[in-house]
Design a protein that fits this description.
Length: about 80
C-alpha cells in the first residue's frame, strides 16, 4: 500500500504564476522503497490578463490529475 502526500506551490512561469498541485507516493519494495509522483497546474493565479486567460483555457486539471494517479498506480 502506498502512502500519498499532497504538495501545493505557486510557480512563476514567464509572465504568469501558476497554482500547482503535486502528489508523491512511497511504497515498500523488496529491497527498499519505490517513490513515484508528479505535479500538474491547477490554475493561473497571477499575470497579464490576456495571457493568463489563454493559458488557463488550456488546463484540463481533472484529466491531468487522473493521468498522474494512473501513473502512480501502475508504477511499482
Amino acid at each position: 500500500t502506498a502512502r500519498l502526500t499532497r504538495f501545493a506551490a505557486r510557480c512563476p512561469v514567464e509572465e504568469i504564476t501558476l497554482d500547482v498541485e503535486a502528489w508523491l507516493a512511497v511504497r515498500s519494495a523488496a529491497e527498499g522503497f519505490v517513490v513515484t509522483g508528479g505535479a500538474y497546474p491547477r490554475r493561473v493565479v497571477g499575470g497579464d490578463g490576456e495571457v493568463a486567460e489563454r493559458v488557463g483555457e488550456r488546463f484540463e486539471t481533472e484529466r491531468f490529475r487522473e493521468e498522474l494517479f494512473d501513473l502512480i498506480r501502475t508504477t511499482g
